[in-house]
Amino acid sequence: MEFKKVVGDRRTIRFFDPTRPVEPEKIQIILEAANLCSRAVNADFAKAIVCLREELPPETIEALKTPTTTTQFDLAPVFIFWYGDTEFVIGAQDRLKELHHLGALPSTHGWSDTFVDEVAVGQVVGPMAKDPIANTWAVSVETGLAIAQAMLAGVNEGLGVGLHAFNTETAKKALNVPDHWLPMWVLFVGYPAEDRLGGGARPRRPLSNSYYRGSYGIPWEDIPGVKEQLRAEGMLQDGMDADKRHEEIRALADRFGLPL
Fold first, then answer.
1. CA-to-CA dists, residue 88 to 47, 76, 114, 118, 178, angstroms
2. Helix or strand or coil: residue 249?
């Protein structure tokens, strides 16, 4: 699938086919995409634990639910629990020097082994890792990059994906999660039982609401023709038809015995 179409097709799927398993090869493709993401100091910020619903005890699945994450745990065949490693600084010097020696961090930009030791790690990465707020910020942002690529890879493989909250204490005990892993989200993966496009694109505000040119207060102005091009290429899509969507939800509720 073309990249723009993948971005346009991504939806938060909430109704999965619980009887259709996901091929292990597709799960690995999702993980490979995450593993290729951009990351500071070439650290493995993103950590993930892949679980199959059928392999978890029913009581554990029930305990993993939150007020906003319920039926998804009953329907999705695959759960990928995402965490961020707060000990990312370990090994930073060796990783940065490796990148420098390979030429990814060129001397033309000031990189050297001494620069790595004294500046990159000594003055930037090291202090950041020791600051709880800065550490959490870095881990969250960097792990989010991996999760985003994982989601798009899943869509490209014809799967449905949905990112949600989970009971982190239950997961920590059930999955033997290390203390230095910061919980992020659970990514549900499976084949959609609903329309794979989720009934249409979700409402989004104009770019000018959030993006600026030069400084805050100067909204980004759309370039003529860009939206039309993106619609033709499938990145921008029609919005949801509420009547059709609610009709589909009623059918899914009947199928799975869910309340309305």
1. 11, 31, 20, 18, 13
2. helix
What pLDDT digit, counting tens, does each position of 41-75 carry? 999 999 999 999 999 999 999 999 999 999 999 99
Q: Which of 43, 2, 57, 51 is nearest to 27 (CA)?
A: 51
Strands in 78-85's sheet, in edge-to-edge order, are: 46-52, 78-85, 181-190, 160-164
pLDDT per residue over 200-239, tens digit each?
Answer: 999 999 999 999 999 999 999 999 999 999 999 999 999 9
Q: Which of 121, 123, 120, 124 is nearest to 110 (CA)?
A: 120
C-alpha distance from residue 6 to each of 33, 55, 93, 96, 149 (Å) = 14, 30, 37, 33, 11
Proportion of the chain in helix, strand, coil states, percent, rounded to 5? 50, 15, 35
Q: What is the DSSP string of 102-163?
A: HTSS-GGGT--HHHIIIIIIIIIIHHHHHSHHHHHHHHHHHHHHHHHHHHHHHHHTT-EEEE
Residue 53 Cα to chain centre, angstroms: 19
- Do 18 and 75 contact (CB within 8 A), yes or no? yes
Beta bridge pairs of residue 219: 212
> CA–CA separation, 240 vs 248, rounded Å?
12
Helix (H, G, I), strand (E, B) or coil at 186: strand
What class has domain 3-193?
alpha beta
CA distance 190 to 12: 12
Local structure of residue 50 (DSSP, 8 states): E
